[in-house]
């Protein structure tokens, strides 16, 4: 992949005021911020709506994992190639394409009639999102210089925090007041506005020396990621030692090795391994992966816990997640102002530590825990995320020469999405495997003991209501206790804590 150049006949060069009297770079910041806001608000809204999607479409736990991972996987696989296409054909042009694809795919998600249709539409969303993500930071890097670049990234990070803050609330209102389908329909007007603004106001830029995309690298990376994620999710249905799972892990390893070899020998790689000679760049990519793998993948299961165990509605769940979102929003603004004054490691390092501490504070959940048990961890983790995000974005392009900004931002965002996809898949597998043993333990010595395997399968597949209708009335209360307690128990391990002694399920916790 050829990186965005700083100069060239088609680059913006010195920014001249547009007919509106506003410098084009500010229109660029507005358009990029709108697109980023739409992408991130979509992510938080989807998390809140997953239990309703599961019930409406009859989706299993693996289906729900794929609703998240289909988006993350296609986004991660296409990021670098999309950046190369933007260098070649124009960043504004590709940004317009990405906006159009994402907006159209959102409409398809809203009319989905089956889990498969929703998963495929989410994959299409990922394609549009990949184009937008890969071009967004490069557009900002090309439009802004010096101290103004830090300001631009600070605004970008603050709006990202705002999206995280209002997303759960908007999602809860839409799901509770209308339907889960409206969490996707809401993207359409935002996408149309961003599309019009980009076409009318954003200055085109490209690399006049750009070469064709690295298609062999794209195919190998896509295959490796797809095989890895499929193996992780499928292992939750069977086991890590099942033949198809082992075969997929082996395929992923072979394709990844082949990808690295191809990138090493390619004249114009999409993934220039020489960038990994820059320690700060490597640290930023590791931080991006770790952040998504930990807190962002865990949010899916936080939502499932709040709604399936504590029995909160989508709106009530969104209001409770606001604790995390406000922390992100406030800390992002602070980090944006500090990023030009202190080394990025002074923000990223402590921020990651805070995320880890926040996860530890959320340990030892049971079926009788109040949601307030989560508050300290959500606040601390939110502040940590807010400290990490803005400097992480600027680090991706700030430590390499300007002509490599497109590739650098694409690699960093790829690490983010791979972290999210693998985190969701791995946590789901650990959750499913832990669930089976907990159900067996809780059902032991009860009339439902012979049906423990059936109960655990129903919990994984979201079919508890059918099982509830099938058992005798006198055993339904026992089934509810086993289901709630078993669903909560894996949280002790998922949050990275010691195992707590199981508590008998009781009434719904107070809010």
From TrEMBL:
For this UniProt entry, what is the primary localization, expressed as one broad class?
membrane
In the bilayer, the protein is annotated as:
Multi-pass membrane protein
Gene3D superfamilies reported in the protein's UniProt record: MFS general substrate transporter like domains (1.20.1250.20), Multidrug resistance protein D (1.20.1720.10)
Pfam families per the record? MFS_1
Annotated ranges, domain Major facilitator superfamily (MFS) profile: 28-511
Q: Where is this region: Disordered?
A: 1-21, 491-511
The residues that cross the membrane are 26-50, 70-89, 96-118, 124-144, 151-176, 182-203, 215-233, 239-262, 282-306, 318-335, 342-362, 374-392
**GO CC term, one of those recorded:** plasma membrane
Q: Name the source's superkingdom.
A: Bacteria
Which segments show compositional bias classed as Pro residues? 502-511
Q: Which UniProt keywords apply?
A: Cell membrane, Membrane, Transmembrane, Transmembrane helix, Transport
One example GO MF annotation: transmembrane transporter activity
Location relative to the cell: Cell membrane
UniProt key word Membrane: yes
- Which NCBIfam families does the annotation name? efflux_EmrB (TIGR00711)
Q: Which PANTHER family match?
A: EXPORT PROTEIN (PTHR42718:SF49), MAJOR FACILITATOR SUPERFAMILY MULTIDRUG TRANSPORTER MFSC (PTHR42718)
Official protein name in the record: Drug resistance transporter, EmrB/QacA subfamily
Q: Which organism is it from?
A: Micromonospora eburnea
